[in-house]
Amino acid sequence: MKTFIVSLGIIILGLTSITYQTDLLSYTMMQDHLWELTEECAAYAALACDETEEGSLIFREDECDECVKYLMNYAKGRMACFSDGSFSNPVISYHNTEDSYSISVSLEFVPNYKVFRLRGIAQPEFSHTSCYEWIKYEENE
Questions:
Q1: Which of these, 3, 19, 129, 133, could form a disulfide with 106 (CB 3.0-4.6 Å)?
Q2: What end-to-end distance do the CA atoms of the chain give, in Å?
Q3: Cα–Cα distance between 52 and 60 in angstroms, integer?
């Protein structure tokens, strides 16, 4: 009987470990995909900026929003990890100072399923922020 109880404990511990490792792999893959999607959204939003004759940048907010929402819909339709869940509204912020211009995009994804199946481990949402910055350099002659 002692052998049976020890064997059953080893099997339960092994199954718990395998479950946790597969859930952790899914979690890291989701984080990586969201990181890549946020980087792409920030890059597309940065491409929607124009430079004026004075050398300052103008952010075309409507085109930035359109590009980011297109990429989110594309990812939701094409990537399996984003198919069962929802994105919250992206936060696109523009910062203008005398020496630099920056645009940042923040995305948040909430899956409709539990990422970690074991009790006591919860990850309700995934979020990531990416930023592009232009710094003015003075040219010395």
A1: 129
A2: 88
A3: 12
